[in-house]
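[Meeting: bench + compute handoff]

Bench side (C.D.) handed over the final construct sequence. Compute side (W.E.) agreed to return the predicted structure before the next meeting so the bench team could plan truncations. Sequence as handed over:
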Amino acid sequence: MTTAATLCGWTGEAVSVAEPHRVTSATVFSSPHSGRHYPQLFRHTSRLDDIALRASEDAYIDDIFSMAPHYGAPLVAAQFPRAFVDANRAEDELDPALIARYTSRRPKTLRVSAGLGVIPRIVAENTPIYERKIPLTEAEARIEACYRPFHHCLATTIDRARDHYGIALLIDCHSMPSDNSVRSNRRAEIVLGDCYGASAISDISDVAFALFREAGFCVARNAPFAGGYITQRYGNPRQGIHALQIEIDRGMYLDQKRMIPTSNYNALKRVLEPIVAELAALPLRLGSAMAAE
């Protein structure tokens, strides 16, 4: 029997969960764009070399936040790369410009029009991934093999926290190219997104903002990134689930041309560790302010 994984060339697990020895936190960390397993079939189909394919990857973000389980919070991380399947998109954000014989059943979103649907057509700097369109069966197989397992795992982990504690906080972890973080000649090193207050109460964003600023970072809120599909999908304060997106300037830890860590990498992790610890403790500290209405 041909499986979805066979059709798209995927091997291995689509998602990993780093669980704490004992769950003591109502916070869940996620890293949907740091996957580094590029299937051979995908690499052969692409017109790009391995480094160019990684241009849209949130490189090493899963490792940067790997201390979360030490503070009682699980870390859910995609193993598949963003260029292969983008977990931070709606499942039906399919791109007719990429997928052969596909007619969209919904109006194209701006993300799809830009080539950044659930199966991306481009990587960073508007670089096409493919020479030609791909079959709809392959796109659907990638979603079945990778996208759905990731979201099932993330939803289950968030629900477990909310069911146990009555509240849950999702910290969705990302990185951003340095040039995307420049606004008014002032570069934000950290951008926090709460969908302009729709995905989390202001108390959470205020505390996170203060933590990063007190650690010496230049911090912005909701600009240029207010929160993507994951933040919007899971953040539901009325149900006691809050979601906050964190974007980290890659220039602080990554050689963005070679996609390898710089000498600042471990120092950044040390600075971030007490912030991660505070975010892990935050839901239970705020308590009733975060509870479902």
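W.E. noted at the follow-up: The chain has nine helices and 13 strands. C.D. will use this when planning the next construct.
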